[in-house]
Amino acid sequence: MAFLELNYYSQVLGMNQPMAAILPEQSGYTPDWTNDQLQDLPVLYLLHGMSGNQLDWQRKTEIERLLRQTKLAVIMPTTSLAWYTNTTYGLNYFDEFAKELPVKVASLFPQISKKREKHFVAGVSMGGYGAYKLAFATDYFAYAASLSGALIEDTNYPGFLEMEKPSYWRGIFGDLSRFPGSENDIFALAEKQAAKKETLPKLFNWVGQEDFLYEANQKAVSRLKKLGYDIDYHTNPGEHEWYYWSRRIEDVLKWLPINYQAEKRLS
Asked: Which Pfam family would be a valid example here (predicted)?
């Protein structure tokens, strides 16, 4: 299993962007893998939350250990604090993720599959919002998972706006009164996608019962099911913390169609 840190130039953003990646390889853990078996690899994009970056998943979870015996590539990009969104201050992070990054990944890692059914995305908090947004607004991802995602219907959700100053939120989403129904409203995107009667992405959702986003996620799951989405929903005691997300990511790996091979924990 190889862990890589790299920088690439984003034409969309007009600046260098960091990215981390995990790639399966022949090693002492998997001596029976051949180069032919390490082609057309499924890929999971892991998205970070607020205050995080592309290294969160590697630093705060056991994602490398979990994947030592599984043929899955992982891409970990960063949106800084921009919510995977085309911001009003001119940085089009959504376009970078939805249009440019997949092409860049295909160029840098030709062993990664180009098939939609082998492309997955998952995220925590802000990244959960980003994962569903990318799944609903593009035809690139077949599976999307949200852990404690900010799956809000509007920006008046209790505690949401208090996380940052009003000027910050206007910089990200613009006029907040126009958020419902906009290109940043994941439910509007989900409705539009469902109306096309095309193959919908399969969804996974987990939220802790003590999380301030618990009610938002319950409503989101109900609304998405009514639209026809196949959503695997889970909840149990937990807060808005990496302590819980680091455990739930293995549930996501087991849910994905990747023949996940769990590594035994040391006793």
From this structure: Esterase
| Residue 72, in any domain of the structure | yes
Contacts of 131 (CB under 8 A, 6+ apart): 45, 47, 121, 122, 123, 144, 145, 146, 149
For the stretch 163-202, what's the b/e string if a residue is b when 16 or more beta carbons lie within 10 angstroms of its beta carbon? Answer: eeeeeebebbbbebeebeeeebbbbbbbeebbeeeeebbb
Give this prediction's pTM. 0.96
Identify the pLDDT of residue 266: 46
Closest CA relative to residue 149, chosen from 168, 140, 136, 139: 136
Residue 78: which residues within 8 A CB-CB, separation 6 or more? 17, 18, 19, 48, 52, 53, 54
How does pLDDT run across 79-95, given as a tens digit for each residue? 999 999 999 999 999 99
Q: Does residue 266 lie in a domain region?
A: no
pLDDT of amino acid 265: 55
**Are 97 and 79 within 8 A, CB to CB?**
yes
- CATH number of the domain at 47, please: 3.40.50.1820
What span, in angstroms and rounded, lies between the C-alpha atoms of 5 and 19?
6
